[in-house]
Amino acid sequence: MKKLISAILAVVMLLSAITTVSAASFGDVKKSDWFYDSVNYVSDKGIMQGTGKNVFSPNTTLSRAMAVTLLFRIAGTPSVSGVKLPFGDVKNGQWYTDAVKWAYDKGVVNGKSNTVFGTNDNITRAEFVTILYRYSTSKNYKLPVSRTDTFADAGEIPEWAFMAAWTLYRAEIINGKSGGFFDANANMSRAEAAAMIERFMKAPKDGKNDDTPDSQPSVDNPDIPTTGNIVVKEKKYDYNGANVMILNVENQTDKNI
Questions:
Q1: Separation CA 252–CA 41 (nearest Å)
Q2: CB 33: neighbour CB atoms within 10 A?
Q3: C-alpha dihedral (119, 130, 195, 135), degrees to nearest 10
Q4: DSSP states along 48-100
Q5: Among the listed residues 118, 120, 122, the one whose alpha carbon sits nearest the alpha carbon of residue 187
Q6: Does residue 213 register a pLDDT over 70?
Q7: Which of 4, 65, 136, 238 falls between 20 and 30 A from 210, CA-CA?
Q8: Spatial contact of 180 and 152, defined as CB atoms under 8 Å apart
Q9: Structure confidence at residue 62 (pLDDT)
């Protein structure tokens, strides 16, 4: 009986230790760091975990596998039974397999090619905001418009990422770097992803401020004109519809993300 009681107490203590994990548990995340609160938020929500024992690796670049896994967890890790993938580099039973299946099935992310997903490839800031925007529109979220200006390097943002970057910037989900630059081709760090995810979760999506994953009812897409054009640094971007089809842009190419 004493051994049984001791075993039960040991399990209770272990569970207690697990439930109190927070940013303070990561030796490479300090209270003075700008991303401390964000890391605390995403770790408490179970959206992001450490890369090792007591290590978060805030400056490590986010991989494509990591990126889709974050959104998969936000979505509540739904069932992907029956979903088949065309990607030869996504094996069954990996920590990211179900996330890739879900993201591909929902149209949130594409492969680097028809047969390659690029699980370990770095993801850029432009690519990350695009998949986050696709997730938001797939849920029919209406993000707030809190800013009307744009980035200092808006003309350098790829056409396929422009609406995503602009929408998330207006909603104050993403911020520019020093000088107001978006820096589209820079790799997304884990710290930046944590901050962006926290802001996205907390942002009103239907007029309410509820950060419970997928608890908001579906609403209309963001208020974007159905026709017109945007002029950025003497470039004209014609668009048609909320999802934006860019027309009349020189050297336009399709982008797999």
A1: 39
A2: 15
A3: -90
A4: ---SBTTB--TTSBPBHHHHHHHHHHHTT----TT-----TT--TT-TTHHHH
A5: 122
A6: no
A7: 65
A8: yes
A9: 95
SS3 assignment, position 131: helix
Mean pLDDT of the chain: 78
In the block, residue with structure tokens 């050297």: 251
Report the alpha-carbon distance of residue 53 to residue 21 in Å, rounded: 12
End-to-end CA distance of the chain: 58
Contact yes or no for 118/112 (Cβ under 8 A): yes
The pair of structure tokens assigned to 59 is 């400056």
Q: Is the dihedral of CA 109, 223, 139, 175 positive or negative?
A: positive
Instruction: Count CB neighbours of 220 within 10 A.
Output: 10
How does residue 186 score in pLDDT terms, banded at 50, 70 and 90? very high
Contact 99, 69 (CB under 8 A): yes
H helical segments located in 75-185: 97-105, 125-138, 159-170
106 φ, ψ (degrees, to nearest 5): -85, -5
Please, are residues 108 and 131 in contact by the beta-carbon 8 Å criterion? Answer: yes
**242 φψ region: left (φ > 0), alpha (ψ -120 to 50), beta (else):** alpha
Contact indicator for 143, 169 with CB cutoff of 8 Å: no
Whole-angstrom distance, CA of residue 218 vs CA of residue 207: 11
Three-class DSSP labels, 170-185: HCCCCCCECCCECCCC
For the cut 80, the answer to whether the pLDDT of residue 13 exceeds it is no
| Three-state DSSP class for residue 52 | strand
